[in-house]
Design goal:
Radius of gyration: 15 Å
Number of helices: 2
CATH superfamily: Holliday junction resolvase RusA
Number of strands: 6
Order of helices and strands: EEEHEHEE
CATH architecture: 2-Layer Sandwich
CATH class: Alpha Beta
Strand content: 35-45%
CATH topology: 60s Ribosomal Protein L30, Chain: A
Distance between the termini: 11 Å
Length: about 120
């Protein structure tokens, strides 16, 4: 069975996903930015609305198409947020991903993302 999830936005740039600071005791730490948290929550919410099946527990193949509105330089192989947002909804954890296919496309004034997840037999 192929699970398809689509949403009308694209991921937050990896440069905007994480911030750095000091934790208790002065130790360096990284954290998700406000924009990254909002993006991850939006993807999770959309996945919950579009997929009502059971969480897949075996290996999966994930294909993601990104339609960007401009040809600004973007590094799509660093989109861990989208994969993490599907954890516990479509699959248990992203360590189950046996195949990952990423595609970059352009569609002026209409950015969106399409995710397909299939169980690998």
């Amino acid at each position: 069975m192929k699970i398809i999830i689509e949403f009308p936005y694209v991921f937050v740039s990896v440069n905007q996903q994480y911030g750095a600071g000091r934790g208790r005791g002065g130790y360096a730490r990284t954290f998700l930015t406000v924009d990254a948290k909002a993006y991850k929550e939006s993807v999770s919410w959309t996945a919950k609305m579009m997929y009502k099946g059971k969480v897949i527990t075996g290996p999966v193949k994930v294909s993601i198409w990104y339609w960007f509105s401009s040809k600004t330089k973007r590094d799509i192989q660093n989109d861990k947020l989208t994969l993490d947002a599907l954890e516990g909804i479509v699959y248990k954890g992203d360590e189950q991903i046996a195949e990952l296919h990423l595609y970059k496309r352009y569609k002026k004034n209409d950015p969106f993302t399409r995710i397909e997840v299939e169980e690998v037999k």
